[in-house]
Predict the structure.
Amino acid sequence: MTPPVHNLIGVSRGQLRHVLASVGVPEKQLGLRTRQIFHWIYIRGATRFSQMTSIGKDLQTTLEKNFSLARPEIVTEQISVDGTRKWLLRFPQDDGQSVEVETVYIPESDRGTLCVSSQVGCSFHCSFCYTGTQKMMKNLTPGEILAQVLVARDSLADYQIEGSADSGSLASPSGLPTTGRRVSNVVMMGMGEPLLNFENVKQALLIALDDDGLGFSRRRVTLSTSGVVPGIHRTGDELKVALAISLHAVRDDLRDILVPVNRKYPIAQLLDACRQYPGLSNARRITFEYVMLAGINDSMDDARELVRLLKEIPSKINLIPFNPWPGTSYKCSDASTIAAFARHLHQNGYSSPIRATRGQDIMAACGQLKSETPVIPLGK
Ligand code: SAH
Ligand code: SF4
């Protein structure tokens, strides 16, 4: 049996130095070669080492023999009437099985946001979330997290091409952003709770933020959490990316039901961690996500309490119309209730607080992600 080929997507700079040293790259070249290979993988989108013309034929051949940059299999790619795209990706696993993961791309005129998954399933089981109905199967590896971005960039032809500073200068097919990168923003808002997979998410995001890696600025990378307080502190200390909090309720008794992790980290503790998040200002605010559930959390009292709770925190509020999924008993608040709720927020200084629903026709909207067959024995 041939040994498994080690995929280098998601390998940190330090790990790559070791890999290169192990195939005989001299110590004094390790820094340069690491930077070059990062550049080829993430900025130029190389899928073969033979494309890496700056690293020399011998090293290309050695790497080609021992390592890979293979992407996951794209099981399906769906495009919504509104231009949202959803990929179902299949990742082979060391034990011979494979797992499936969903990734969603949301284009707007001035940006393209990729919604990336961090786990297969989720152990938190928030009562209104489709992903939460799926058993927690696995933490994604840094490579599996970053491969989602590379698949999107492959599919959208979003790499720097030789001689050009930015792919944004290419003519854009309709529906894609007309300026800047097609994938200009990353949000860790797909399947799973990123702070329950902190080490892998951290390794992936450090490569996403690395100038020789994907090169995203910190304000274009957002991590969303349902409220794992120690993880919020670590995110602030070690990543400093933009933060989103799935708040969804303003009272502990209700939040205990909607977002069960609240029983461990109640609202007061969660908001304290938010207040301590480094670098907050009017230009760098925390996003609070609030799903609108008819008759559950959508009263004017809730709106008033929300404003009161967030008073001292530089914050944005995103009201998310509830997206239904098979088997749920929740209903989305009606349009006039959402409008009244939003009006109260608006009067208190929160601009455009309603998040447009995107990709609903392909089950790509918030909370609708779930892989139907999360684990597949190889060979099927
Ligand atoms: N686990 C993390 C990341 C997922 S982000 C978190 O919970 O923050 C996905 C966002 O969509 C979260 O704010 C989640 O609460 C919200 N969501 C889940 N199910 C939803 C649904 N059916 N309709 C609208 N939003 C939903
Ligand atoms: Fe998990 Fe987030 Fe869904 Fe809750 S809302 S079940 S934490 S993915």
